[in-house]
Design goal:
Layout lengths: L2 H17 L10 H5 L7 H12 L4 H8 L5 H10 L6 H8 L6 H9 L5 H13 L5 H14 L5 H7 L5 H17 L8 H5 L5 H13 L2 H6 L1 H11 L5 H11 L5
Helix pairs in contact: 5-7, 6-7, 7-9, 8-9, 9-11, 11-13, 13-16
């Protein structure tokens, strides 16, 4: 082979090495491909997904990875490929997941036909002391999107939780009932949340009140005024100013 042939051969090999994840032609391991989901071009990401789909025992590998050092990579793959076959394995594993990340992946996989079974399990987890705050927040978000009612006693308990993010997530779920579904049974809750120790939750309460339809507010004037009477005396200047603005209907 002449010099020209050698150079041509080298150029082809070099170009091929830039496109293919593996110069040997082997399919990269699932962890190698998963690491290409972020910080890479869309072309590289698509190639990584194609390579993952070529792995015959991928689902088995991902199951084994749950709880291992590659746990988060496995969750990324399950989410990106929408591997619904692993939904129930994830539900089982998530019980001991303190990060809450597995719940976010589960929530991305849930379809309408799963909601009844998942919501029952989620409510049980929500009541369990061993469920981490991060997991409870993810659960509350999912229950809100599924339109699941928490029940009065559970709401009262959650609004006393020592983690303010859990109290805020509970109030967000209540907002979907009050504002989006016009369910009035949770209106008394606002008289509790306007006195929450965290001023952010008191502000969240006032924004919720500002979203109530005028007819709703008129029909429940005594309770709404009780919220205003409380925030009128709030020690936080931001809460007090927002209270006055909402009362005048000046909040967009």
């Amino acid at each position: 082979m002449g010099i020209l042939g050698l150079l041509l051969s080298f150029s082809i090999s070099f170009a091929s090495a830039k496109v293919e994840p593996s110069p040997t032609g082997r399919v990269p391991s699932w962890t190698e491909s998963a690491r290409r989901f972020t910080g890479e071009s869309e072309e590289v990401r698509k190639k990584a997904i194609q390579n993952l789909k070529k792995i015959p025992d991928l689902k088995s590998d991902l199951k084994k990875a749950l709880g291992s050092p590659d746990h988060f990579l496995a969750l990324d793959v399950i989410s990106v490929l929408r591997l619904r076959d692993l939904l129930w394995e994830l539900l089982t594993y998530s019980e001991k997941d303190k990060t809450g990340y597995s719940y976010h992946v589960i929530n991305s996989l849930i379809e309408k036909k799963d909601e009844e079974t998942v919501s029952v399990l989620y409510l049980e987890r929500l009541d369990a002391d061993k469920t981490s705050p991060a997991a409870k927040i993810a659960i509350l978000d999912a229950l809100g999107r599924m339109g699941v009612a928490l029940g009065d006693e559970r709401v009262k308990r959650l609004l006393k939780d020592e983690t303010p993010e859990i109290r805020a997530a509970t109030l967000s779920l209540i907002r979907s009932e009050l504002v989006l579904k016009n369910v009035q049974r949770n209106l008394p809750v606002l008289e509790t949340t306007i006195g929450d120790p965290a001023f952010q939750i008191r502000i969240q309460t006032l924004y919720l009140v500002s979203e109530l339809p005028p007819s709703f507010r008129r029909a429940n004037l005594t309770r709404v005024n009780a919220v205003f009477d409380h925030c009128d005396k709030d020690p936080n200047s931001q809460v007090k100013a927002l209270c006055a603005a909402v009362r005048k209907g000046a909040v967009e």
